Amino acid sequence: ENFKPAQVLDSLKVPDNHLAINRKLHFSIAKDDDNAHFEIDSSTGDLYLSKELDYETDSHFLLQVIIKDYNNPPQNSTVFLSIDVEDKNDHSPHFQDDFVVIGIEEDVPVGTLVYTFNAKDGDGSFLNSKIEYSLEVSNMSENPFLIHPLYGTLTTASPLDREITRSVILTVFGEDQAINLTERRLDSLAVKIVILDTNDNSPSFMSSPLSYVLEDVEVGFLVHHIIAKDPDEGRNGQVTYHILSGNENKAFVLDKITGVLTTAQLLDREVQECYSLTVMALDDGSPALSATQVLTILVLDVNDETPVFLKQLYETAVHENRDPGEFVLKVEAMDRDAGLNSLLQYEILPGAGYEKFKMNSDSGELVTAASLDRETQKVFSIKGSSVKCSPSRSSTAQLYLTVLDENDHSPLFAKTQYQISVTEDLEEGSAILDLSASDEDDGLNGEVTYSLIDDTYGAFAVDSVTGSIVTTKALDRETKSQYTFRAVASDCSTHFPRSTTVMTVLIQDVNDNVPKFEQSYYKASIWEGCSPKTDIIQVFATDLDSGLNGETEYSILSGNENATFLIDSARGILATNTGLDYENTSTYRFLVLLASDRGTPSSNSTATVLITVLDVNDNPPVFSSPEYHVHVKESIPIGSHITEVSAKDCDAGTNAELAYAIISGNDRGHFCLDGRTGSVNLTKTLDYEDTMKFTLIIQAT
In what residue span(s) does the Cadherin domain sit (predicted)? Predict the structure, then answer.
């Protein structure tokens, strides 16, 4: 393209076989073609450059050359001439802009296309117009970008971070690739790459996660200023504050713009001494990013609480007879305040028996100050106090202390001896006396057991627990009227002596015995004819009872209908009340005597007396008939029974034994009389003609 005008570029030649020699030819360039750059010699066909060429304007020309042959016959021909313009590196690469500002988001991945540089080079040939790109970084030690040398594409070579590098200044070079290095041309372009923010950073808390506030602050008091930073910019870095949790009771309010946390209600450390608020810092990006912080708010104590004992009533037991200093119990009070505000002092308030104890003012331990005696005082009811000094606040608790017993006392009977009277008719198992022995000790030590140590002849026993003396069999005063034995009261100790008392039991009589005759059947006899009031027999009845119950009176119960007899009521002498006649009544078989005592009710028994009236020979024999008439035949043989006489004598015994005798009329001895039976028998033959009749006088003596 740097070929100078007026120089012959080329010359058109007509082949010999085409045109005759010496033919007259005329060369011209067709007018229609863009032939401003070329001229042709019409006669010689030499082609001239009429003006300079510019490869970058026209790199190729196609000329239509008309050749006219003026010979005869004239002929015309057309030749197309193709002209290629060779490039000369006469243009430098050229960027469209001198300065480019490019924005790219910081979160693009490595290899992201940032920008494509397109430098132009007016040269036409390949190497002269082929541009190779390069770049330089002016404000960074490491270049986060890479440019493709051929395509001019600028890409990320490493991750970008706007928060570290907000922008990068680059110089981009475009250089052609002329073969001759010295002819190479270049151009440069200043590039500012602005790293555009993306919401890739969460807010970060700068403020402390711990805050303190006094419990007595007013509502609206500034508790904490929450600060969070977000390195992003714009809305991505605008932070608002929110409470996510821990503020369920609405104790605090948080200004979401300023992050100022204030109290929304009165605080009470004793109700809640620590608040754990989960606070969120939220940016305004899309999507929004957040961060959370657990803000611990410690409520500082103010001395506004009164001590409170863990128990309002402390109950325990302490042994008696122990040396002073014996641990009793430990009281403990709580003050809901903290630190020095909760330090307490313990003391015993004055009261009955409080001087026997002392309390450690720091620990609250109560110990004895003297030896205790349960039998003197078995319960102490004292008050303990917990006090704090500034300001003074206190509370009290009741201490109920029971003194535990030791077996240091023996049982003692109320009396050293007992005398009681009981009736003998008590049923078996009846209680006659409740012994009472007291033991000043307590519990098992004071539990008294009773026993008997002398022989009670099986009549009595004692309930070992109640001390009740009961009968173990039926009593009988008539067998034993008095019992003397000892009762013993013991406790569980084996070291102390037992207590004894003497029991005298007098058995009182009851009318449980009937007067008893010495015999149930008496026999007595008396001569008839005795004068009245004659003693017949003395009976005896014994009554084992005593007193009136044993005093016997005698009477006739039955068999004395005619009042024939009488009896001395005191002495039991049975006597006649009238004269007795044997011949009238010889025996009194059913005379029943009654022996009665004077008890109430009266008891009695009976005996039967058989009284035989002894005969006195005061009655002559009397024949059953004054005359006996007997008829016999004279022919009866000797020895025949003639008759029998019978006499009776009202007397008895030998007085009534009769003997019969013929005192007259049997002179010739015809008859014989059995003197015992009174039987008359024939002893001689009878002869009617001799004696027709016999008159015998028979005597009974």
Answer: 1-95, 104-205, 213-309, 310-413, 414-517, 518-623, 624-701
Q: How far is CA 264 from the centre of its chain?
A: 42
Give me the count of residues in the chain.
Answer: 701
Pairing of strands 186-196, 99-105: parallel
- 94-196 folds as Immunoglobulin-like (2.60.40)
- Per DSSP, the residues of 337-395 read S-GGGG--EEEEEP-TTGGGEEE-TTT-EEEESS---TTT-SEEEEEEEEEETTTTEEE
Q: How many CB atoms lie within 10 A of CB 425?
A: 16
pLDDT digits (tens, 9 = 90+) for 326-346: 999 999 998 888 888 888 889
- Residue ranges covered by each domain of the chain: 7-84, 94-196, 204-300, 308-404, 412-508, 516-614, 622-700
Residue 26: which residues within 8 A CB-CB, separation 6 or more?
A: 42, 43, 67, 68, 69, 70
| Residue 519: pLDDT band with limits 50, 70, 90 | very high
pTM value? 0.43
Alpha-carbon dihedral sign for residues 67, 69, 70, 73? negative
Are 405 and 443 within 8 A, CB to CB?
yes
- Residue closest to 594 by CA, chosen among 645, 555, 567: 555
Q: Are strands 671-673 and 145-147 parallel, antiparallel or unpaired?
A: unpaired
CATH 2.60.40.60 assigned to 516-614? yes
Least Cα distance to 624 among 644, 597, 651 occurs for: 644
For residue 528, the one-letter residue type is E
| Architecture category of domain 412-508 in CATH | Sandwich (2.60)
For 51, other C-beta atoms within 10 Å of its C-beta total 11
